[in-house]
Design brief:
Elements lengths: L2 H27 L7 E4 L2 E3 L5 H23 L11 H32 L5 E4 L2 E4 L6 H33 L18 H9 L1
Antiparallel strand pairs: 1-2, 3-4
Length: 198
């Protein structure tokens, strides 16, 4: 692995860990139902919580990691399949699943952060008032998905670059075949006759 690959993997790995860690901290710091009080029968009073900032920071960190891994790898759609079909398939599967988990984690982080900051909102259900709170596990699920997205992105990056490296080394030519631009070598007919006499 070259120096560039190590740097890309390290930066993306750190950003993914930061995103997951902030997601788990946001889960611990979110507003729980027992913390909400009523100033009147129809108005909810929420305590202050850092979950909004934590969720937004985790979402931005995850987005930066996804952008870095995809810019460093290049467009998988614009290249033809390399020599190794198994590596190409693994890279493609990791690419698709990484984007799927990224979108899910990003939306969960943003929606959890936004819903955690709903102050003064209430809901009437069969004449009873209820206050909005983020369900348990939203931030933790987003943190787990962001970690999976980054791990799959790194696997995609390493697998796709290894297939590009193999393709560059062979020059698109199957090993053992003569080079098509090679001029034929002239061998004088007496060369073979001399070997037979000796």
């Amino acid at each position: 692995m070259d120096r560039r690959s190590i740097m890309v993997c390290a930066v993306v790995g750190v950003l993914g860990l930061v995103s997951a860690l902030l997601g788990f901290i946001a889960e611990a710091k979110r507003i729980k139902g027992s913390q909400v009080t009523f100033s009147s029968p129809s108005e909810c009073v929420y305590p202050r919580s850092p979950a909004l900032a934590l969720g937004l920071t985790a979402a931005v960190s995850l987005m930066i990691a996804q952008v870095i891994i995809n810019v460093a790898t290049g467009c998988i759609c614009c290249t033809r399949g390399p020599q190794s079909a198994s590596n190409w398939t693994l890279a493609l599967v990791c690419f698709v699943v990484s984007w799927f988990t990224f979108v899910m984690a990003f939306l969960l982080l943003l929606s959890g952060a936004a819903l955690n900051d709903e102050h003064g909102q209430e809901n009437i259900y069969f004449g009873n008032y209820y206050c909005y709170v983020v369900k348990p596990g939203v931030f933790a699920g987003a943190a787990t998905l962001s970690l999976a997205s980054v791990i799959l992105g790194i696997i995609y990056y390493l697998t796709f670059n290894s297939t590009k490296l193999v393709d560059d080394q062979t020059g698109g030519i199957v090993m053992g075949q003569p080079h098509p631009h090679q001029d034929p070598v002239f061998v004088h007919p007496d060369t073979y006759a001399r070997r037979q006499l000796a």
